[in-house]
Amino acid sequence: MIDAIAWKFQTGAQRVQLPEKYGNWRGVYNRLRIWSADGTWERVFTALLAQADADEELNWVVSVDSTIVRAHQHAAGARKKGPQPASRMTTPSADPAAG
C-alpha cells in the first residue's frame, strides 16, 4: 500500500494509472484519503523524524537557490504608488485628404 502511494507521488500520475502490481487504485486512493484525514501520515513522519534525529542521521541545513525565486505573474504590471506622470500630448497629423 505504501509503495503504491509513493509511486503515485513520485510519478505524478493519476490514480487510475496505477500499475496492476499495486492492486486496485480505488483501495489505494481510499487508504491515502483516510490516512490523511485521521492523522496517520503525520504520526508516521513525526516518528520517523524523531528516530532519525535521535540516531543523528539528520542534517538540518537549508539551501535556497535564488534562481528559482520568482515574482507572481501579476507583479510585473503592477501600478506604482505616487503621482502618475502626465500623458504626452499628441499633435494631429496633417489631413491626408487636404493634400
UniProtKB/TrEMBL annotation:
It holds the Pfam family DUF4096. Residues 72-99 are annotated as: Disordered. It comes from the Bacteria. Residues 72-82 have a biased composition (Basic residues). Residues 1-45 form the Insertion element IS402-like domain. InterPro entries: IS402-like_dom (IPR025161), Transposase_6_like (IPR052909). This is Transposase. It comes from Streptomyces griseomycini.
